[in-house]
Amino acid sequence: MHEFSIADEIVKNVLETAKKNKGKKVVSILLEIGELTHLNGEQVSFWIKELFKDSVAEGAEVKIKTVKARIQCKGCGYKGGMGSDQEDSFRHLIPASCPRCNSFQIKIEKGRECILRRIQVLK
Amino acid sequence: MKIIKSKGPEIFDIELEKDLLAKNKSLARKNRKRFDSSNILAIDIMGSIGSGKTSLIKAVLRKLRMGTKVAVIAGDLTTTIDAERIKTEGARVIQVNTGKECHLDANLIRQAVDKMKLAGVEVLFIENVGNLICPGEFPLGAHKRLVVTSVTEGPYTLMKHPYIFREADIIVLNKIDLAKAMRVNPSRLERDAYRINPQAPFIKANALKGIGIPKLIEALGLES
After folding, report:
1. Domains of chain A
2. Contact B163 A92 (CB under 8 A)
């Protein structure tokens, strides 16, 4: 739902970075989106491309890498993914419990980020 | 920032590590420090449109009778309806209009706090924009996060939106007086809440009649 505002923030960052580095054209950008965020990659990408129009980034490729969730269990010390038996697209809907001991006392270490990792520019 | 030249003479890779959600989190931490240094308990109230967030705040204020020791930030898209409603309870109120944005963020709260006179304020209620999706992802720096849902939203709200309920410190089920008419079983919703977030107290309330309000005040750590 807030894909537009995130996309707007990303576009501002991309254009600022391109300008600072005297890039004449942005060729591509790489985003890393955690699977536990409520961000839909396709929507984010759509809005970025829309907002890139009439700028040095018009037509740039938007690459999105999904970051898998990583948790740490305070109960049994388990460190790792959230369990592979659950269907990927619905994983964030399942109450997050430790896949080893089922404890709800877990800390989410990865999967809630939205990172602008790389910008490719033409000088 | 690291710049790597690659793929022919003109294309450059610019490596960044800009977490766009982290910016909000760090601002939220700053807000929290500010509340702590002023001895203010900040409470973020989230929930769907029409779940009764404003009514619940009004009911708590009425019971607390703390007057201007309580401040309220009312978030909404464009109107001041909620702020006007709360003002009648004697608290200090500031309206934050997000325009088209579907949630409050830490920066909006920072700006609102800048504008408010917080001297003497002990409790700050922050009423988020009516929405069960986005606010969960944007912490504001509040000490407690309350999610309000109501029986008029039907029997599946909790299971459909586990994310925000997982973020909650307290879950309130409002309008319990209408459960029968809505054919919703409050115990079933309570069970859903327990599955999603066993730590959060689940409070059945009827804000208009003041039912459940003492329990809520206790869960918030406030004395009536």
Report:
1. 1-123 (3.30.2320.80)
2. yes
